[in-house]
Sequence to fold (370 residues):
Amino acid sequence: MSATFQELRDAINQEIPVALATVVAGEQVGAKLLVYEDGRRSGSLGNPELDARVAADALELLPRGEAQTRTYTLDDATTADVYIESHRPPRRMIIVGAVHTAIPLEKFARELGYYTIVVDAREFFATRERFPDAGELIVGWPDEVLSQLPLGPETDIVLLSHDPKFEDPALEVALRSRAGYIGAMGSKKTSAERNERLRAAGFTDEQIARIHGPIGINIGARTPGEIAVSILAEIIAVRRGRDPRQPGSGLAPAKADAAPAAGESGT
Amino acid sequence: MRDILPEIEKWQQEGEEIALATVVRASGSAPRPVGAKLAVTASGRMAGSVSGGCVEGAVFETAREVIKSGRPQLVHYGISDEMAWDVGLSCGGQIDVFIEKLV
Fold:
């Protein structure tokens, strides 16, 4: 499998989405096939019919980033179990506001496999000393920076700056994008006031409902690290189809009305 | 895969022989989902995991056999049965692990 593994490794390192299929039971155990999003294939499972059927299934799993083992019965009545796994580029998290909570959030997000981008207009906040391992550290007006970045479904945007001057224009850019998750720090009162301003700016209730604010799930978080956990927990839940705002999710959104810990609002 | 790739690349550069174990089926309350991976070297280094720790020991032994023989193996781990001295998942889940040598 050397050549195939090498090619898989290159695709992962170059952030090219690819599915890898391996025969785990049948005649050609260990045989491998790579399938790219455009349908291009590399390698073989040892049977042209099997290659074609597995490639079709791989193209169904790859966009969803899923992995599965399927059993195939071929024209010659032999069967093969084929394990198909998807490799997609990492999700990206854009953190607007290089504040105290952004430090653990950026760190934990990387642990979860995110590529992280931290944005702040204030250069004394967005420093390498504070964010030594962030994927990108950008000093600039958040709305201008966000307009320059690709904001697709694999990008999550977290606004922590807490200041309408930075946040409102950035939120407007976020709401016009296809970003996977949009969350904004702030108490219930701050969130309601912000939503009012966005409504006045012409955004619909449906658009505004994309913003998770108060951000996070209710775990009684107080410290920056705990708030970061609460935010990431919400993002994971939303991605798995369990929006904490929906009754029946088994989760509750953060109340954001707890006594603020030093310099931060509770979540 | 992405999370253990740096280790695998480092080991390959050092000339290590490596086996890769992947959870290819999971049912019940399996501790790690399909796709979870554990890389093992002939010298005994490990990266990643295929369970919460319940079957890593057994997978580790099989992985070293696979490195020697070069033949991949598909191994099923079910509910542990202490009376039979079997290796298994005390959580009640069941997993199939495919173990192959990286060449």
Observations:
- Strands of chain B lie at 18-27, 37-41, 46-48, 73-77, 94-102.
- Residues 5-102 of chain B form one domain.
- The two ends of chain B are 16 Å apart (CA to CA).
- The mean pLDDT of chain B is 87.
